[in-house]
Amino acid sequence: MVESFQTNNHTVYEFSRTGELPLHIDCDFGIPSQAKTVFDTTFQTHSKQTYQSVNLLINTAVLAPFGSLSLASNHQISTHLAVNIDSTILLIQAFLKAFENSPITKSLAYISSGAARRAIPGLAMYSASKAFFERLINTIAEEQKSASHPFKCMVINPGVMNTDMQNEIRSQSEENFPMVGMWNDLHKNGQLAAPKDIAAVCTELVTKSGVNGGHYVAQQLIPSNS
């Protein structure tokens, strides 16, 4: 995703623990109070700069806990909520607050999942956190219709693609993840999209064709010649 935006002449800043970009910003979403300070400082600094456009692409996701919620540890639950919910809300809030009065082109895109709109046994918290943000982004998009300097807000479901996240899913037992066989079949049958193709679609949606309030499945928008 980073490479795709860079290729399209965007300067990319990445909030994460493990990024290796020159413009990587060290940030642990697992500690919301510290993450908030990083978000606020970064966005307030950039809001004073002159840009033609600014885009926030949110790709935070912890899968665990797998299996029945009754078996999840307190640590797994608190970590999931900190990364997938608490810090992500603070990220969105800081972005909106810093740029809400700016007349430049602005977009807010949340990378969701098909799990947000269907029940997947063994992934209750992941499905719920993705659904949470789909509704949040939809509501913000509605609010932006009456804003003086609106953000373009959208939800992008990547589809199924060949990433380390898929490796983690396929490594689960059938007891913890009853649908693991389906994911193994998708991989075996070559039905997982290439990450670079998904990234190209996301870049196109965020910077050009996506509309406020839109919901997209990136895998379905990959050009047939990819």
Description:
- The protein has 226 residues and is α/β, with parallel strands linked by helices.
- The chain has 7 helices and 6 strands.
- It is globular and about 55 Å long.
For the record, what CATH class applies?
Answer: Alpha Beta
Low-confidence stretches: none
Q: Examine the coordinates and then state which fold CATH places here, giving the name of the CATH topology.
A: Rossmann fold
Work out the helicity level: 40-55%
The CATH architecture is: 3-Layer(aba) Sandwich
Query: For the largest beta sheet, what order do the strands appear in spatially?
Result: 3-4-5-6
Number of helices, where a helix is a run of at least 4 consecutive DSSP H or I residues = 7
CATH superfamily: NAD(P)-binding Rossmann-like Domain
Judged by helices, strands and strand pairing, the structural class is: alpha/beta
Count structural domains. 1
Based on the model shown, name its key terms:
single chain, 226 residues, alpha/beta, Rossmann fold, two-stranded parallel ribbon, 7 helices, globular
Give a concise summary.
With 226 residues, the protein is an alpha/beta fold. The protein has helices at 2-7, 32-47, 74-99, 124-144, 164-170, 180-188, 195-209, and strands at 14-16, 24-26, 53-58, 105-111, 152-157, 214-217.
Furnish the topology, listing elements before pairings.
Blueprint: H1 2-7, E1 14-16, E2 24-26, H2 32-47, E3 53-58, H3 74-99, E4 105-111, H4 124-144, E5 152-157, H5 164-170, H6 180-188, H7 195-209, E6 214-217
Parallel strand pairs: 1-2, 3-4, 4-5, 5-6
Helix pairs in contact: 2-3, 3-4
